[in-house]
Amino acid sequence: MDHEPSYKKRKVITIGVVSELTGLTERQIRYYEQRKLIFPERPERGNRKYSFSDVERLIEIANKREEGVRTHEIRQEIMKKNKEEEERKIKKQMLRGQINARFGIQND
């Protein structure tokens, strides 16, 4: 099975386009990166590349900031969501392994 990231996770969008899509300034976007709320890819030339998932997260961050939520609170929420997602993945893999073992299915 090919493990190519989905189109939403591919880091292909420049900071200028992200700024246009989100309504945030490039400075704000860099600040959110600095606060470890987003993680753009930085190829050799150093130009940041963002994914559609990053754009969605930035819009979510901007909305929360408008509501008065502080960046460290947003980061805590993101970390909690990431941990929960990782736990779901592990449980799913364990269940798949148990089912495969029960029915004698070999994984490749």
Automatic annotation (TrEMBL):
Provide the transmembrane region boundaries.
Answer: none
Q: Where is the HTH merR-type domain?
A: 12-80
Do the record's keywords include Coiled coil? yes
Name the Gene3D superfamilies on file: 1.10.1660.10
Q: Which GO terms describe its molecular function?
A: DNA binding; DNA-binding transcription factor activity
PANTHER family assigned: HTH-TYPE TRANSCRIPTIONAL REGULATOR TNRA, REDOX-CYCLING DRUG-SENSING TRANSCRIPTIONAL ACTIVATOR SOXR
Protein name per Swiss-Prot or TrEMBL = MerR family transcriptional regulator
What's the source species for this entry? Niallia alba
